[in-house]
Amino acid sequence: MEYTIQKLSNLAGISTRTLRYYDEIGILKPARINSSGYRIYGQAEVDRLQQILFYRELGVNLESIREIVMSPSFDREKALREHRVKLLGKRNQLDLLIANVEKTIALTEGRIDQMSNHEKFEGFKQKMIDENEKKYGGEIRKKYGDERVEESNAKLKNMSQEQYEEVTALADQVQSTLAEAFKTGDPACELAQKAADLHKKWLTYYWKEYSKEAHAGLAQMYVDDERFTAYYDKKQPGTAEFLRDAILIYTGMQEK
Question: Which of 91, 101, 108, 138 is the most buried (most CB within 10 A)?
Answer without folding.
Answer: 138
